[in-house]
Design brief:
Helix 1 runs antiparallel to helix 2 and helix 4 packs antiparallel against helix 5. The longest helix has 30 residues. This protein is mostly helical. The protein contains five helices and no strands.
């Protein structure tokens, strides 16, 4: 029961984080926007739920699964770190902040999107080569989209705080 609750909470928080990451991908006017707070809080909640889930299952996992989940948790921590860095760039607005912000949020968009598509492909019983192609395509399309957003950023004469 607890496993189902944690897994469902992780997936719901991840889906909300993905939707709001797309919403805030273009730098908002302020770090105080509620959309930014929802993005960051659900990203952190998603990480917390998956950490709790792995802790619940840890004793029953074989060594290979423990290594795999440890690596995935490291990716989750890094993804959350990038979300926090995006918030920091938005709040501090140091020179070049817009590009850094989009890079950080873009990384989380790609990570979340790939996570959903890879898990979806696995759940649908896709063969490993298809799962790999889905993951690589997600990254390629994501990077292309992030670069398009960065090309459309305003180029201020002087960065303002």
């Amino acid at each position: 029961m607890i496993r189902t609750i944690l897994l469902s909470s992780h997936a719901i928080a991840g889906l909300i984080a993905l939707v709001f990451a797309v919403v805030v991908l273009r730098p908002p006017a302020s770090a105080d926007r509620w959309t930014v707070r929802v993005y960051l809080s659900t990203l952190l909640a998603m990480l917390g739920f998956v950490i709790a889930l792995v802790m619940v299952d840890w004793a029953e996992l074989d060594v290979a699964s423990q290594i795999t989940f440890s690596l995935l948790l490291a990716l989750g921590v890094f993804t959350a770190y990038r979300g926090v860095q995006a918030y920091r760039a938005l709040r501090e607005r140091a020179p070049g902040w817009r590009e850094r912000y989009v890079d950080h949020v873009g990384f989380t968009v790609i990570s979340l999107f790939d996570g959903f598509t890879i898990v979806g492909a696995i759940d649908l019983g896709a063969p490993l080569p298809v799962v790999i192609v889905v993951g690589v395509l997600g990254v390629v399309v994501g990077i292309t989209a992030i670069n398009a957003v960065k090309r459309r950023l305003p180029v201020p004469a002087a960065e303002s705080r």
